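Risk register update: the risk of archive-format incompatibility is retired. Evidence:
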Amino acid sequence: MIARHGSLDHIFAKVLTTGGENLGTSQRIGARLRYLVNTIISGTQHRLAGGNVIAAPDDLFPYLQLDMAGLEIETFRVFFLDSANHLLADHTLWRGTVDKVQAHPREIIRHALAENASALILVHNHPSGDTQPSHEDLRLTREIAAAASLMGIALLDHIIVGRGGSNSLRRSCEGLFARSQEKGATL
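Archived output:
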């Protein structure tokens, strides 16, 4: 299956998006794959919703890889956290096309205020598999960091998910989060 579909992430994404159809397997194997993927995602969602602290992007990478790496369109979601980095909400806010998604800083801040969030983690995928940020990704991150900072909300990270892994912009783009660091971001 991996030789036919490229990666385990891609297989899992097909299970999530199509229920495992078109994988070239029997219905029994398809059902087992659906059960496995749903169990893993459900367990991670339960752990996050159970009040566990998100201490670093690495805490989210396995879940995000499974949930988003094989998506065929760009999807933008936001994790809303309290002041101790407990998950308050995880919202998929926009779905785009194969190579872009339009996110709006105003809407992110509106959701953050509605959730009473103290911090945000932005996440989107690149269906191409490349986790390097585009100029638009960097511009958007700066805009959201500035808007969030004005409202006393820390932007902790922006994670780009690709087929082969995930990229934390906090780690890979020095200076991008300088404003959030001034506000005491703790990631």
